[in-house]
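Figure 6 in text form: structure in, sequence out.
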């Protein structure tokens, strides 16, 4: 955003409640260069098709690992998205459409793949049902994964996000939920997304204040801009002045005090109205679950999902006595 105009208010839609103050981390991904047109000779067609098959196999395995990791870290609903992506990837019609384009137009694998996925994404975005239009993000994300794999791109700028930042992006796609460093993100502001979007699912699962549907948000915010994310009113405040900061800090402090009171009550013995003591046990699948359960007053562990220790990695864990 040009200049330093104070208290610029950008209205959107709150999709995860809460208040947070932090500096912006603007996420822009440019994959156009990876899909640049590249003509090939007929004798190169089979090698390009093999590149597609190798990338598809690798991405399918990555999707399985991502699904297991997300289920362990957040919830099964997000994990199901990656399972659906894998099923989409195994569609023989999709693979054949990409292969045919390589053969017919004698172009390399990446631009052929990008063109096919853009066609499919466009079809979903033109549909009238909101639930169908949201599938366009799944198509876009799957195409992006394949392009990255073909180009040998293994990391994104998201993985290098400094701690304590407000993530600003056009949209958050499923693969972003895997790359996102959980401890680094304090708030989220996105241009696209609603209550059922991938950004909403991630934000709600992690308790991150989030405002969506802010037009051209990545063009209005610069890296490092001081922001207030108001996940109650659906508002983003850019360059807040001192009185505004003071007011919001008071609100945040009041919310933290209420939260601390709730946690304190949660740590007391659970009793029914007639005085019967109830044991509260937690379901856990990782160390973070155990810490959260203990912090919130659980009396013990009711179910420990050991399979996550195996399924979230490619080699068996090493156990210590």
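Output sequence:
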């Amino acid at each position: 955003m040009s200049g330093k105009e104070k208290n610029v208010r950008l209205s959107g839609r709150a999709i995860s409640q809460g208040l947070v103050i932090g500096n912006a981390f603007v996420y822009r991904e440019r994959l156009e260069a990876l899909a640049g047109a590249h003509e090939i000779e007929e004798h190169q067609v089979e090698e390009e098709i093999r590149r597609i098959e190798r990338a598809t196999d690798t991405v399918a395995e990555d999707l399985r690992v991502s699904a297991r990791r997300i289920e362990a870290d957040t919830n099964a609903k997000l994990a199901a998205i990656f399972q659906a992506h894998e099923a989409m990837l195994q569609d023989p019609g999709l693979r054949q459409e990409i292969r045919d384009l390589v053969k017919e137009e004698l172009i390399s694998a990446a631009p052929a793949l990008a063109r096919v996925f853009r066609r499919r994404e466009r079809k979903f975005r033109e549909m009238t049902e909101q639930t169908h239009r949201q599938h366009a993000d799944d198509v876009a994300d799957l195409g992006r994964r394949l392009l990255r794999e073909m180009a040998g791109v293994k990391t994104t700028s998201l993985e290098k996000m400094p701690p304590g930042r407000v993530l600003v992006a056009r949209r958050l796609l499923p693969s972003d939920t895997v790359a996102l460093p959980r401890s680094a993100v304090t708030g989220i502001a996105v241009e696209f997304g609603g209550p059922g979007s991938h950004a909403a699912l991630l934000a709600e699962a992690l308790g991150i204040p989030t405002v969506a549907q802010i037009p051209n948000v990545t063009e209005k915010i610069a890296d490092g801009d001081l922001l207030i994310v108001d996940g109650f009113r659906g508002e983003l405040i850019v360059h807040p002045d001192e009185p505004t900061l003071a007011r919001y800090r008071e609100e945040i402090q009041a919310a933290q005090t209420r939260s601390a009171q709730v946690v304190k009550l949660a740590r007391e013995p659970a009793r029914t109205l007639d005085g019967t003591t109830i044991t509260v046990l937690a379901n856990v699948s990782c160390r973070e679950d155990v810490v959260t359960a203990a912090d919130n007053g659980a009396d013990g562990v009711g179910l420990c999902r050991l399979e996550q220790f195996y399924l979230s990695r490619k080699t068996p864990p090493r156990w210590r006595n």
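Caption detail: The mean pLDDT is 85.
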